Amino acid sequence: MRTALADRLGGRGKAHVVVLMACVMALNAADAGVIGAIVHELRQSLHVTNTQVGVLTAAPAAVGAVATVPVGQLTDRVRRVPLLAGSVVLWSLAMVVGGLADSFESLLASRVALGAVTATAGPTVASLIGDLFPPEERAATYGRVLAGELVGVGFGLLAGGNIAAFLSWRVAFWFVAALGFVLAALLWWMLAEPERGAQAPSGGRGGEELAQRQVQAAGVEPDPRNVLTTDPERLTLLQAARHVLTIRTNVIIILASAAGYFFFSGLRTFGMVFVLDRYAVGRGGLSAFLLALGVAAFAGVLVGGRLSDRLLRGGALNARVDVPTVAFAVAALLFLPGLLTEQALIALPLFALGAAALAAANPPLDAVRLDVVHFRLWGRAEAIRTIVRMSGEAAAPVLFGWLSGVLGDGGEAAVGLDRVFLLALLPLAANGLLLLWARSAYPRDVASALESERRFGAGP
């Protein structure tokens, strides 16, 4: 069984890397899950409102969006493993302080500090994945790593909710913090710093990436406007940002990814309290639903990456764009009838399937970004995406919390949340149309990145 699992994760030599990267993403998402699980306890202990709960979830994302700018620059210039391990230590210290809070204001202050270090995960993990794994495994590897986000949210909801119910919400914070200290030590001891560009075509080891081979076979020419004329190592942050934002495919997937995470952020913050209030399920029933939701989303994120890579190998040049296009549309269509019914036996399975479809969109989207950007700009490109994504994640909980009060007409919170989730399906469904626009640009943008790497593959 252990051998089979290692093979699934890319072989024994890479299995521990996948697990460590997934754990980083899990820890990064766990605190939002914990907040979503202890809404009732925070209401009683600190007398917070739904809007304030949204602010607590939004604060790390908002601060992280700002902190991502220097972190992306650092990721492309310094050793990434110490940067990542150090950020996990600081994250854990912020969680410890949060558990000591005696007011909404003091808890919010700890969450602001937390956001300053959560920004490290996205750029460093993206850069490390690009250099640690063969390009043809890019989307599938991202699927395995991003599964950690779902595990983290589910773990935060389950562990946080049960620890808060039986002990205290403060202990839930400290428990997650302890896991963070352990992960930081494992990263320091077990993860070796890879050479930059180790899997790039110019490095002579990885060969041309799967998407690049398909583009060449199809005779696609690069877009001269997107081919680098300056060594990426010498670009300032502003110049790098200007370059990656001229790549149309990159801009589209940034917007699509942000819309997906906007919905997911609202869901993980208020989904648990919505199910409790709307369907009156007990703690045991809720735990069973969360487990089913987690399994479905976990399966979705793995299938999304593997399916897009398999289709790409079969000659479907736009597979990494097409899979998330369909996934977003299917997710909206599944969530819609679930939100319109009050029957738990109908709604909850639809929510689980919708979560699976939503999760399936992320791995190919993240792989697309690496396809169309020079490998020495991966950290800065991810930083720019993270700014937009975390801005959406920051806005969603506050907006969901505020609108639930406005649309609830002073009645039950579940009524207001019901209407907010329905409204939030609109940008989710629009993602399907937005990504159709990327189909024509993606092949040329891949060819442009390949030409840039041929010109500036070895660095200064």
Description:
With 460 residues, this protein is an all-alpha fold. The protein has one domain: Growth Hormone, Chain: A (Up-down Bundle). The protein has helices at 2-8, 12-37, 39-46, 50-75, 80-99, 104-118, 121-132, 138-166, 169-190, 210-217, 237-244, 248-279, 283-313, 319-340, 344-360, 362-372, 378-407, 413-436, 438-455. The longest helix is centred in the middle third of the chain and has 32 residues, at 248-279. The radius of gyration is 21 Å and the shape is globular.
Order of helices and strands: HHHHHHHHHHHHHHHHHHH
Distance between the termini: 46 Å
What is the typical, i.e. mean, pLDDT? 78
User: Which runs of at least 5 residues are low in confidence (pLDDT < 50)?
Assistant: 1-11, 202-207
| Number of DSSP helical runs | 19
Q: What's the CATH topology name?
A: Growth Hormone, Chain: A
Question: What's the number of extended β-strand segments?
Answer: 0
Multimeric status of the protein: single chain
Q: What global shape is seen? A: globular
Output the radius of gyration.
21 Å
In CATH, the homologous superfamily goes by the name: MFS general substrate transporter like domains
Reading off the top of the CATH hierarchy, the class is best stated as Mainly Alpha
Q: In the CATH hierarchy, what is the architecture at level 2?
A: Up-down Bundle
- SSE-based structural type: mainly alpha
Main pleated-sheet profile: none
Strand fraction: under 5%
Amount of helix: over 70%
Compute the number of structural domains: 1
